[in-house]
């Protein structure tokens, strides 16, 4: 009777928690019919251009699917022949086949797709975005040389007809990168275009066929297999720049999880320090993808494991974590493409994806200029990068204090990349001539994070986590705000909202006995207690409120609880 008298006068927008309580008890009393998460639904059906190929993560067609169904930089379009195309170096390449299992795709320059012509059209160099694509193994580069002086060449009969009547392009010399005649030919020709192919033939017909058949690319994006095996669809969170597994209940970090009873101490149990096999222990604000709950670290601080190495991924590439210094909140990274000591044929720029990170005071930048022509000059001392140079185009590296202050022209080079490094003692009076840039790259650089202090929680025996936009401390008994020594926190509005989600899910998927057990679990009882406290605060007598004091404190004078 008291409950019936209370509810009608207080169910209003200014009492959102009471409204939630009313919804809570309504859910407990009736069948709940849930629907799949909208992100899961939006990405559940593969896209297509009409040629029979299914297009799914990491690829997507803007306008047909939501951007979160794919990975940044993997946008496809559909041409007039119902074929998917991808833009590489401002040129449309036809996607002939996508091999999702080994993360490769076969592409061909759309300029070579016309099978009715018997000439070689003019095209432009392929400059692969190294952060997203690499040439697959067993591919080679075919040099198409234009505007050549045939009198300087030993075998002018090797020229093939171009598709244009201009003097510079009406004949084309095609040589593979391993051809011994390439060096002399490049000096006798005024321009060259590099076209990747799978192999090289000896006659014009075969060359045109190779160009039409295209080449294989291997893409760099988080593997989707673990998510798919758990029943999810892969997606991407552009805000935190992280992979997400889109599941029927909600997006998860790595894979979908079966519905289970959620208890208050499950956060502590599921968030032990992680490890990839080598490297440092990984704990808050970092977490290891796939080894714990989504709430074991902060958004954007997920770490993947590759060949037992911890990998930190940004929007422009992957970096191996060499060490994490939790005391001063710093961690050391090494470019993943150079961590094994091999030639850095194509590095990538480093990008900050979150404002909570910054370089340390010993930061400097190595600037790499790739495939520059003979007229390239710069106002810094430079060094040749031999392993990234060829007979016609050279690559260079310089050392600067900060790439943000660099404003010289790079138009004489195909690509320009800035790689952060760390100089002992700082940048003062150091140039590329008195440092070993290879050693600097191997040593990596250090980043500092700010704003997350887990010391109080750890010293009290807890483990830090992240719940619904708040930092929390997971303890053996329950969730606290920042330390296990604090007074117990009561569930607030966000906690009840999450609890309601669990109730609906469990009501739909569990047998009656399991559901009944859940209703009498600690979290369910605490949710009910919170509703009762809110009612008392809203209009009962001081004597009634006295019954609900917690550990000698008035619960209504406690700080905003975090659950």
TrEMBL record:
Q: Does the keyword Metal-binding apply?
A: no
Q: Which GO terms describe its cellular component?
A: membrane
Q: Which InterPro entries match?
A: WAK_assoc_C (IPR032872), WAK_GUB (IPR025287)
Question: Which coarse location class describes where this protein primarily resides?
Answer: membrane
* UniProt-recorded Gene Ontology molecular function terms: polysaccharide binding; protein serine/threonine kinase activity
Q: What is its EC number?
A: 2.7.11.1
The chemistry this enzyme catalyses reads: L-seryl-[protein] + ATP = O-phospho-L-seryl-[protein] + ADP + H(+); L-threonyl-[protein] + ATP = O-phospho-L-threonyl-[protein] + ADP + H(+)
Enzyme class (EC, first level): transferase
Q: Where is the Wall-associated receptor kinase C-terminal domain?
A: 174-250, 392-477
UniProt cross-references to Pfam families, sorted A to Z? GUB_WAK_bind (PF13947), WAK_assoc (PF14380)
User: Keyword annotations for this protein?
Assistant: Glycoprotein, Signal
Where can this protein be found? Membrane
Protein's membrane topology: Single-pass membrane protein
Q: Which residues form the Wall-associated receptor kinase galacturonan-binding domain?
A: 45-108, 271-334
- What name appears for this protein in its UniProt entry? non-specific serine/threonine protein kinase
């Amino acid at each position: 009777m008291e409950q019936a008298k209370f509810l009608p006068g207080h169910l209003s927008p200014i009492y959102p928690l009471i409204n939630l309580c009313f919804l809570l008890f309504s859910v407990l009393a009736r069948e709940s019919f849930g629907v799949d998460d909208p992100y899961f639904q939006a990405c559940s059906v593969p896209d297509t251009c009409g040629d029979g190929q299914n297009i799914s993560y990491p690829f997507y067609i803007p306008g047909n699917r939501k951007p979160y169904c794919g990975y940044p930089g993997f946008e496809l379009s559909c041409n007039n022949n119902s074929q998917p195309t991808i833009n590489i170096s401002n040129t449309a390449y036809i996607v002939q086949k996508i091999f999702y299992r080994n993360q490769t795709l076969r592409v061909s320059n759309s300029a070579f797709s016309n099978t009715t012509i018997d000439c070689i059209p003019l095209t432009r160099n392929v400059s692969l975005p190294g952060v997203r694509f690499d040439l697959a193994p067993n591919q080679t580069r075919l040099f198409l040389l234009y505007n050549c002086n045939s009198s300087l060449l030993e075998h002018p009969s090797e020229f093939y007809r171009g598709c244009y009547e201009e003097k510079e392009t009406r004949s084309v010399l095609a040589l593979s990168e391993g051809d011994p005649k390439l060096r002399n030919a490049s000096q006798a020709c005024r321009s060259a275009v590099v076209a990747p192919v799978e192999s090289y033939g000896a006659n014009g017909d075969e060359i045109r066929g190779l160009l039409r058949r295209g080449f294989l690319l291997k893409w760099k994006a988080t593997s989707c297999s673990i998510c798919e095996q758990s029943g999810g669809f892969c997606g991407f969170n552009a805000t935190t720049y992280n992979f997400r597994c889109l599941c029927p209940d909600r997006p998860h970090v790595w894979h979908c999880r079966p519905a289970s009873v959620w208890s208050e101490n499950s956060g502590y149990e599921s968030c032990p320090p992680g490890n990839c096999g080598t490297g440092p222990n990984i704990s808050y604000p970092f977490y290891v993808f796939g080894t714990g709950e989504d709430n074991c670290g902060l958004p954007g601080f997920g770490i993947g494991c590759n060949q037992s190495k911890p990998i930190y991924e940004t929007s422009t590439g992957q970096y191996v974590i060499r060490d994490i210094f939790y005391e001063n909140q710093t961690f050391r990274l090494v470019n993943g493409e150079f961590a094994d000591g091999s030639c850095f044929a194509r590095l990538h720029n480093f990008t900050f994806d979150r404002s909570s990170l910054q370089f340390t005071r010993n930061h400097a930048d190595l600037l790499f200029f790739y495939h520059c022509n003979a007229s390239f000059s710069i106002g810094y001392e430079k060094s040749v990068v031999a392993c990234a140079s060829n007979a016609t185009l050279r690559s260079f590296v310089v050392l600067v204090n900060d790439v943000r202050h660099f404003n010289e022209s790079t138009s004489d080079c195909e690509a320009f990349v800035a790689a952060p490094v760390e100089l002992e003692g700082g940048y003062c009076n150091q140039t590329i001539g008195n440092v070993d840039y290879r050693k600097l790259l191997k040593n990596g650089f250090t980043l500092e994070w700010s704003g997350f202090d887990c010391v109080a929680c750890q010293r009290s025996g807890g483990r830090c986590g992240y719940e619904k936009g708040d930092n929390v401390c997971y303890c053996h008994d329950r969730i606290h705000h920042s330390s296990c020594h604090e007074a117990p926190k009561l569930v607030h509005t966000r906690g009840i909202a999450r609890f309601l989600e669990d109730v609906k899910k469990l009501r739909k998927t569990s047998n009656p006995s399991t559901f009944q057990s859940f209703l009498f679990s600690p979290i369910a009882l605490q949710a009910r207690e919170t509703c009762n406290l809110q009612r008392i605060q809203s209009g009962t007598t001081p004597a009634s409120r006295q019954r609900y004091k917690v550990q000698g404190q008035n619960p209504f004078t406690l700080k905003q609880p975090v659950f």
